[in-house]
Amino acid sequence: MKIGEASRVSGVSARSLRHYEDEGLIVPGRFGNGFRDYCQSTVDRVLVIRSLLESGLPVRLIREFLPSLTDEAGVGTEVVCAEFLHEVQSHRDRLAARIAILSDQQAALDTYLREARRTDL
Protein backbone atom coordinates (compact mmCIF):
# COMPACT_ATOMS: atom_id res chain seq x y z
CA MET A 1 0.00 0.00 0.00
CA LYS A 2 1.14 3.56 -0.63
CA ILE A 3 2.01 5.96 2.18
CA GLY A 4 -1.43 7.61 2.24
CA GLU A 5 -3.20 4.32 2.77
CA ALA A 6 -0.61 3.16 5.32
CA SER A 7 -1.18 6.42 7.16
CA ARG A 8 -4.93 5.93 7.16
CA VAL A 9 -4.75 2.28 8.23
CA SER A 10 -2.21 2.88 11.01
CA GLY A 11 -3.49 6.24 12.23
CA VAL A 12 0.05 7.61 11.91
CA SER A 13 0.71 10.64 9.71
CA ALA A 14 2.65 10.26 6.49
CA ARG A 15 5.22 12.62 7.96
CA SER A 16 5.67 10.28 10.95
CA LEU A 17 6.02 7.30 8.64
CA ARG A 18 8.82 9.10 6.80
CA HIS A 19 10.40 9.99 10.14
CA TYR A 20 10.28 6.35 11.28
CA GLU A 21 12.03 5.41 8.06
CA ASP A 22 14.65 8.14 8.54
CA GLU A 23 15.28 6.81 12.07
CA GLY A 24 15.76 3.29 10.74
CA LEU A 25 12.68 1.95 12.53
CA ILE A 26 10.95 0.77 9.35
CA VAL A 27 12.08 -0.08 5.85
CA PRO A 28 9.18 0.06 3.43
CA GLY A 29 9.52 -1.51 0.02
CA ARG A 30 9.56 0.61 -3.12
CA PHE A 31 7.46 0.55 -6.24
CA GLY A 32 9.21 0.84 -9.60
CA ASN A 33 8.53 4.58 -9.61
CA GLY A 34 10.23 5.00 -6.21
CA PHE A 35 7.04 5.41 -4.17
CA ARG A 36 7.03 3.68 -0.81
CA ASP A 37 5.21 0.36 -0.55
CA TYR A 38 3.99 -0.58 2.93
CA CYS A 39 3.07 -4.21 3.58
CA GLN A 40 0.86 -5.25 6.49
CA SER A 41 3.84 -6.36 8.59
CA THR A 42 5.35 -2.87 8.28
CA VAL A 43 2.03 -1.31 9.32
CA ASP A 44 1.91 -3.70 12.30
CA ARG A 45 5.45 -2.61 13.20
CA VAL A 46 4.37 1.04 12.95
CA LEU A 47 1.61 0.36 15.50
CA VAL A 48 4.19 -1.08 17.92
CA ILE A 49 6.49 1.91 17.35
CA ARG A 50 3.67 4.38 17.95
CA SER A 51 2.68 2.61 21.17
CA LEU A 52 6.26 2.60 22.46
CA LEU A 53 6.79 6.27 21.55
CA GLU A 54 3.51 7.25 23.22
CA SER A 55 4.79 5.48 26.33
CA GLY A 56 7.71 7.90 26.34
CA LEU A 57 10.45 5.47 25.37
CA PRO A 58 13.33 7.07 23.47
CA VAL A 59 13.83 6.26 19.80
CA ARG A 60 17.31 4.92 20.62
CA LEU A 61 15.85 2.21 22.85
CA ILE A 62 13.07 1.38 20.41
CA ARG A 63 15.54 1.10 17.53
CA GLU A 64 17.77 -1.22 19.55
CA PHE A 65 15.08 -3.66 20.65
CA LEU A 66 12.38 -3.35 17.99
CA PRO A 67 13.60 -6.26 15.85
CA SER A 68 13.31 -8.64 18.78
CA LEU A 69 9.85 -7.29 19.64
CA THR A 70 8.33 -7.50 16.16
CA ASP A 71 10.22 -10.20 14.26
CA GLU A 72 9.72 -13.92 14.57
CA ALA A 73 10.82 -15.48 17.84
CA GLY A 74 14.27 -16.93 17.59
CA VAL A 75 17.27 -17.95 19.59
CA GLY A 76 17.94 -15.57 22.46
CA THR A 77 14.57 -13.84 22.27
CA GLU A 78 13.95 -14.41 25.98
CA VAL A 79 17.27 -12.77 26.87
CA VAL A 80 16.56 -9.78 24.62
CA CYS A 81 13.05 -9.41 26.04
CA ALA A 82 14.42 -9.53 29.60
CA GLU A 83 17.03 -6.91 28.68
CA PHE A 84 14.34 -4.74 27.05
CA LEU A 85 12.13 -5.01 30.13
CA HIS A 86 15.11 -4.03 32.29
CA GLU A 87 15.67 -0.96 30.09
CA VAL A 88 11.97 -0.06 30.24
CA GLN A 89 12.02 -0.40 34.05
CA SER A 90 15.12 1.81 34.24
CA HIS A 91 13.47 4.41 32.03
CA ARG A 92 10.34 4.26 34.19
CA ASP A 93 12.41 4.67 37.37
CA ARG A 94 14.18 7.74 35.96
CA LEU A 95 10.79 9.16 35.00
CA ALA A 96 9.43 8.51 38.51
CA ALA A 97 12.45 10.31 40.00
CA ARG A 98 11.87 13.33 37.75
CA ILE A 99 8.17 13.34 38.70
CA ALA A 100 9.11 13.32 42.39
CA ILE A 101 11.43 16.31 41.86
CA LEU A 102 8.73 18.17 39.94
CA SER A 103 6.17 17.39 42.66
CA ASP A 104 8.52 18.79 45.29
CA GLN A 105 9.06 21.91 43.21
CA GLN A 106 5.32 22.30 42.70
CA ALA A 107 4.72 21.99 46.45
CA ALA A 108 7.40 24.61 47.14
CA LEU A 109 5.76 26.99 44.65
CA ASP A 110 2.34 26.35 46.21
CA THR A 111 3.78 27.24 49.61
CA TYR A 112 5.38 30.36 48.23
CA LEU A 113 2.12 31.46 46.59
CA ARG A 114 0.13 30.85 49.78
CA GLU A 115 2.61 32.90 51.79
CA ALA A 116 2.68 35.66 49.18
CA ARG A 117 -1.12 35.90 49.17
CA ARG A 118 -1.23 36.12 52.96
CA THR A 119 1.13 39.07 52.99
CA ASP A 120 -0.91 40.86 50.29
CA LEU A 121 -4.05 40.88 52.44
Characterise the protein shown here.
This is MerR family transcriptional regulator. It holds the Pfam family MerR_1. It comes from Streptomyces bobili. Keywords: DNA-binding. This protein is mostly helical and 121 residues long. The protein has 2 domains: 1-55, Orthogonal Bundle (Multidrug-efflux Transporter Regulator, Chain: A, Domain 2), CATH 1.10.1660.10; 72-121. The chain is built from 5 helices and 2 strands, in the order ααββααα. It has helices spanning 3-10, 14-22, 40-54, 59-70, 77-120, and strands spanning 29-30, 36-37. A two-stranded antiparallel sheet has the order 1-2. The protein is elongated, with a radius of gyration of 21 Å.
SSE topology:
Layout: H1 3-10, H2 14-22, E1 29-30, E2 36-37, H3 40-54, H4 59-70, H5 77-120
Antiparallel strand pairs: 1-2
